[in-house]
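Students often ask why we bother predicting the structure of a whole assembly rather than each chain alone. The short answer is interfaces. A chain on its own may look different once its partners are present, and contacts between molecules only exist in the joint model. In this exercise we take two input lines together and write out one structure for the complete complex. Read the inputs first and try to guess which parts will touch.
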Amino acid sequence: MAALIECEDVWKVYRVGDMEVQALRGLSLTIEQGEFVAIMGSSGSGKSTLMNILGCLDQPTKGRYRLNGIEAGNLKPDQLAGIRNQQIGFVFQSFNLIPRTSALENAQLPLFYRGLSLKEQRAQAAAALGRVGLQGREHHYPTQLSGGQQQRVAIARALVTSPSLLLADEPTGNLDTQSSQEIMKILETLNRDEGITIILVTHEVDVAAFAAREIVIKDGQVLSDRVTKERPTAIPVGG
Amino acid sequence: MSAFVWLTILTALRILARNRMRAGLTMLGIVIGVAAVIAMVSIGEGAKRAVQAQIATMGTNVIVIFPGVTSASGVRGSQGSAMTLTVSDALDLKKRIPLLADTGWAKRDVMQIIYGNRNWNGPINGISPSYLTIRDWSFTSGGPFTQTDLESAARVALIGQTIVGNLFEPGEEPVGAVIRIKNVPFHVIGVLAPKGQSAQGADQDDVIFIPFSTAERKVFGTSFIGSVGAMFGSTDQVEDLPMAAEQIREVLRSRHRIQTEQEDDFTIRTQVDIGKVQEGTSETLTMMLFAIASVSLLVGGIGIMNILLVSVTERTREIGVRMAVGAKRRHIMMQFLIEAMTLSLVGGLLGIVLGVAGAKLTTLIAGWPTIISGNVILLAFFFSLVVGLFFGLYPANKAARLNPIEALRYE
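Now the answer. The structure tokens for the assembled complex follow.
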């Protein structure tokens, strides 16, 4: 069984005017199914670029990135969109809910692009909202929800497609301490009980402490990679 | 249709409902354009129908032949000033051209008509009886005069509605009355059914018909006996008109001994020619309508494009999120195209309602006849759809080509 994520000598080079910016310089990384990984690093370290590549929003300039055995580097934009829809859930720092649209409809969005019937979309989205503790708030608009609740809607939206990978880019960056803890507990539970692979980008040490593995990125390369917690043995790999 | 399309249409409607003011202003161009076209085409169609009805009052398949102009040392008189056409021309035409179903002739002069203590100046027409059938005159009371009346130069008259209105009391029966034209007493034997205005705008009911021979000998005091003011012919089929006109020309040229290099001393007009002039007018009108329609639809379309570009910019992050959760380019494209088409279609429908109401109101207030054709409504609907599609393409394509990373980062 191959690893969920395999990065081999990944380079990402941008051109800004005449300047060439090397955001990633030969980064290699392997993440197994069911892991909870925190990626840390100062701004400009290349961690955002890495997240974009892992999330199939971007492609490496050089090197190989395989997700679930699929070579993502050669895919066309619409194929990448298909992979994002099928395999990846995103949670953003600023929630990125669609304004003036109910929690339920926000959570439905990925299913909408799967072409499911409206009935199925609603049922699955309502179930996902239930898993993040938002029963009864299906018809609230983002403006009627607290920051923590909005982020939970975003998690429900990421979960609704049963993705193999959940990417959380500073999910607690805009939240107070209590909401941050709640959100992290939800992620922890999803990882522990459902075996969803979570990759988390954060600056905060206490947030990173929820993860079982900590990868530090510096200058577009892996600076350190260590296991901080024993992996729970109850979850079979690939489960 | 798939759930996707329906939901996108619903979403588009919701977005429009949310920004009612903006949507309304955006649609205004299309609304006004479509309304103007529908109202004006309805009025134009109504006018065209009215003109066609007027042309039909000339009679059926009519050919009119006027004498040419007199020319003295190069100075030309008015049309019909020459006395080149004669009764024998008309009789000969009928004999020699089988295509002609009938020929008639007339000569007119304006004179005073007296009845009791009233008088009126109206055109007196000396005519052959065939003229009445060629021009399709019918009667509200009494009847036409006959060939016998013509041969005996009987003092009988047929009068039009305008004459009746000016000489007789309301309700008084003119048939049987004696009127005097230039002091010659005439028996009124028929009252003509009204024809209204001619295509040129003249009152066709201001008319008195008397036998040609009577007019010539007892009323007009003509110096050239047998000369006519105009000749008329008719054919059974409208398609025969041009051929008949050509044959008339040949016969008249030979009878008048006109050399090949000389101009005709007469003018031939068929009902088709007169209709063509009117058609030309309505074609110009149609072209103008199309110009107005294109300009207003263009302006409306640009308005839609403008507001959609604003919308794409405003909703850049939303587009980024949609792409992140798996929207393909065609999904984003469809979303904005459907929004554009919803705008233009709703605008078009409002325009149709407004245009039909405007046409009805014109009939109600100004009394102009209007005809609302289903084709125009369909065309307007179709065009607003096309405008939405065309002017939505650029913004939709712009949205679909956004880079998801940059879109997500957009502030």
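Check your guess against this: Chain B has two domains: 3-54+277-409, 83-264.
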